[in-house]
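Dear all,

This email documents one entry for the complex benchmark we are building for the journal club exercise. For each entry we list the sequence lines for every component of the assembly. Then comes the predicted three-dimensional structure of the complex as a token string, followed by one or two observations. Please use this as the template for your own entries, and keep the labels exactly as they appear.
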Amino acid sequence: MGTKHLRRMDLIFTRDDDYKNLVKDILSRKNEDIINEMMESGLKGRGGAGFPTGLKWKLTSEKPEATKYIICNADEGEPGTFKDREILTQVPYKVLTGMAACAKVIGAKEGFIYLRGEYHFLVDLLSKAIDEFHQICKVNSFDFNVYIFLGSGAYICGEESALMESMEGKRGEPRNKPPFPTDLGYLNKPTVVNNVETLAHAFTILKLGAKDFHDLGVQDSHGSKLFSVSGDTPIPGIYELELGMSVQDFADDFGDGDCKAVQVGGASGFLVPRKRFKETSIGYQGKLKGISLPTGGSMMLFNSSRSMYNVLSNYLDFFQEESCGQCTPCRVGCQQLVKGIEQVKRGEKPAAYLDVLLKLTDTMKVTAKCGLGQSVANSFQSIVENFKEEMIY
Amino acid sequence: MSDVQTLVKGLVKSYGRQETSLMPILQGVIKVERSISESAMIEIARELEISTAKVFGMASFYSFLDTKPRGKYVIRICKTITCAMKGKNQILLALEDSLKIKVGETTHDKHFTLLETNCLGWCHKAPAMLINEEVYTELTPEKVRQIIEEYKKNEVVD
Amino acid sequence: MKQINLKINGIAINVDEGMTVLEAAKKLNIRIPTLCYHKDLCTAGNCRVCVVEQVGRDRLVASCATPAQEGMEILTNSLQVRNSRKHIIELLLSEHNADCTKCYKNGNCELQNLASEYKITNPDFIDLVPYKNYAYDDLSPSIIKDDSKCIRCQRCVRTCAEIQHLSALCVAHKGHEMKISTFAEKPLQEVVCATCGQCVIHCPTGALTEKNYIEEVWDAIADKDKHVVVQTAPAVRVGLGEEFGIEKNDGRVTGQMVAALRRLGFDAVLDTDFTADLTIMEEGTELLTRLKKALVENDKDVQLPLFTSCSPGWIKFVEHTHPDRLKNLSTCKSPQQMFGALAKTYYAEKRKINPENIVSVSIMPCTAKKFEADRPEMRDSGYKDVDYVLTTRELAIMIKQAGIEFSRLDEEKYDRLMGESTGAAVIFGATGGVMEAALRTAYELVTGREIPFEHLDITPVRGFDGIKEASLTIEDALPDWDFLNGVTLNCAIAHGLDNAHHLLKRMDSGEASYHFVEFMACPGGCLGGGGQPIPTSPEIRKKRMKAIYAEDGDMPLRKSHENPEIIDVYREFLGEPLSEKSHHLLHTHYKARERY
Ligand SMILES: Cc1cc2nc3c(=O)[nH]c(=O)nc-3n(C[C@H](O)[C@H](O)[C@H](O)COP(=O)(O)O)c2cc1C
Ligand code: SF4
Ligand code: SF4
Ligand code: SF4
Ligand code: SF4
Ligand code: FES
């Protein structure tokens, strides 16, 4: 334990007392320069989907509409994720600066922080930071206002189109895509939705330059990333690490010496069993060697005392409750999975029924309307395939 | 005008009549009443000129927008994976024992409601719970008993 | 318009930009199954049965919600598509109380059709119904809501919001508990439901159905002591044929319908069209009286515009949502209720039958008429004026049960005494029809001349525009009406309650002002009513409208005041329009209802 394979970084949480000057500097730059810097940095969204941030800003900047919005997604509901909360607690001004940069580029006058209801306690602190930030905008004659929109306990509202529905006073039911938010977003105006961490990284990039950021990480997974580490680890918490690390290195650093599996990316991510630690690296899917996993940064460790059946059953309960319920594969699929593994465990269904359920998750993956239903297959398949006996006996 | 009508009218005044205000208004009702009664929903629908069914559909979607009566303090204990691994069940037993109610119930004096909820975002300090907006982490059975005692004491003083 | 080239199942096609993959496939005669999709409604994309493969993408796409894009290659019947679709249908069935043999929609159910198409004989999944606590609501006189049959496609919710502007229905809760609900899960009877039945005709399954009174009517027919009279609404004759696949003659089946009703055993087969003509006499006179009060007597209390009152769904809508407008409503009962009141008075007298022994049945394109017949105000004959209201669909069921080969029936004529009608009455079934009928009579009454439209076809008030307007300037009026000389009468017409809502808003804001406004609760008017055959679509309504006007054109008499039986009923029984007797039997009052 604690062999310290991984370089720990401190880009995000480092205080920057000079940020007022950065805001001023950003506001004096040309839009193209900001976009170029963002594109060159290789920054991809840290909310899970991994869309290139510079490109998202660029696309939205090209829309002719007079009204546009930037929304900071602080709904952080993925089990095992808590890094955004810490960013907003410690360096809210970095996020606000990132929002301002985006607002300038795309031409937005209003921005929102969609803060999950569970983080209500952050409202006062954030409001203060926003007030201060408004002063800076004013000093620089930049017409930009940020508001907090508080959620009310619905994981699905982290999905960007559900988030906007929710802000519009509706149930958080994800929309059909296309149209994408960059075309028709909040109140049908072009909208950028970015994760808290993404915006904080934008701060770093605009401060240090694209190159410094780009040099971190590997191939197409550039930069550092915050990881929320929990479960069977002696040192749970939030860590900033380079992308591209292997799960083995991670488990060596963070495990309790008895690490059986690591869940990467929360309940909607993948379970990596010990036998695959070495070949699996953490980054965006693509050119990395071996298997690579995208992640919103949740890393949950399980030691050998844990029943993987209980873990899966817990996830599935989560999904059947947190699904918005509108589409068939997700709403009914989740219920079938919950009941299905229960009945297999109790011996009411044969072990072969797991194969039926695996096929069902294949269908959910390709037919569900949004990322929630599509990703239930991730944990289901990786757990059932790797820990079949635990599902049955 | 009933209290809840006054409350809703006040909220509408500060947030406006557009549908984007629906969520903050519902949250405002929760803050005061801990749950959204039929008369509150009716009043909101009237003020925003939308259907009552729509207000109900909206409220019932969000787990913090309770439409069933709740106590003055709503306890939500996280049941998601890490908290479950780190002893959430013992915490729940301790709470049920101190409050003499089961999950989903409200104490006779209407002071406490005990609920479970999904991931609160404190997995590194599991188990965690909310009492109204307040967060409590790294719970132990003793710790929750103390917390509840504190609340009960304050109630008596009130 | 920009053209898009794509390939579906290897066949190249060129479509307008904005068209969906589903529509493009249809152009190629490739049918993709759908459930949540409905032409009348905005796209939801939630059932996912319409998924297709887009070559090069790892996920399937919902064809109803995916615009055709340049270069797309779509497969609608690949192995992956078929397996996925089958899974989805199976999933729906696992949440569904699929006891088809005991289900009212057996034989006319989109879910059942899909299950049968995909041969879901050996489902893999666990039956979830025992774990659910499905509600069943049959308290409304019009509609039954059975949650155990619901597939949560939200068609009803969209219908009630988009077409009817009421949103009596909503989606409640989330995840596995998500359901279609009303405010606080109250029975439909207690919420702002217009009982229009639009949700029923847009529901693909048996989750929303009309409350049927078929057995009650069979019992009455079988009862030797009862004299059972039946009336048929104008729109029924242009819809009923669809239930029997009849397309010839624009689908008009008036004569066969009369023959079938006789064979079912009704003692008298009569026509609501008769009281539609009567409505024109009463409502037309009411309009002229109000105009006179306003223009001559300068009476400030007189309420103009006059709103039509033949659509009980519209009435209930006003009662709930615009109680301040109740005074604008004509006090005339709907033709159904006028008929009911006369059946147990005038008809009973003339036929020398004890009204106690008369059972009055009506065949309506409408579910709101069931509610209307149950209103306590509708007992002016001293009895329940209309005992049972059947929809067009229920009549079709009875005809099928009786083993009548409908399409082979020879045409027959309505019985005398309340069976005679004019073309003006039959157009009550289409939006704009009441207006047209009223204008034909009122104009002639006032000027002594026929209304100056070719063949009496007042085309400006016809068609499917949501809100229509027409103006008519009166010149050379007869002496009694000379106060109308030079007056331009402004009229408007709205169908579907969403349009009604918008028109009312325009009037409230002063943006528009009229003398006479026709409102119908359902899209297209009664021809698109909630009691008409399922399915419905813009094309089907168009076809029915064509049939209505063809029916009118073929009638020997085209103006209500020329109906000889109408002349008789005034001479022998009522006296004159708005007489005391008329007031007692043919007029009613309304009451404000809770909106919230
Ligand atoms: C079910 C679901 C939940 C999500 N939750 C979050 C979340 O809590 N926070 C977040 O930033 N993104 C979340 N996302 C991703 C967002 O939809 C969106 O991609 C992201 O906010 C974009 O920001 P980024 O490009 O900066 O990552 C979620 C997606 C899905 C499908
Ligand atoms: S996949 Fe699940 S969460 Fe997403 S739209 Fe469908 S039901 Fe809702
Ligand atoms: S709703 Fe359709 S599928 Fe369901 S039981 Fe009735 S007929 Fe069968
Ligand atoms: S009957 Fe009409 S008003 Fe009532 S719920 Fe159905 S669509 Fe809405
Ligand atoms: S009641 Fe009918 S229309 Fe409404 S969601 Fe259920 S199945 Fe669909
Ligand atoms: S018909 Fe396309 S998703 Fe339902």
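Observations: The first strand of chain B starts at residue 73 and ends at 78. The helical segments of chain B are 3-15, 22-33, 38-48, 52-61, 81-85, 88-99, 141-157.
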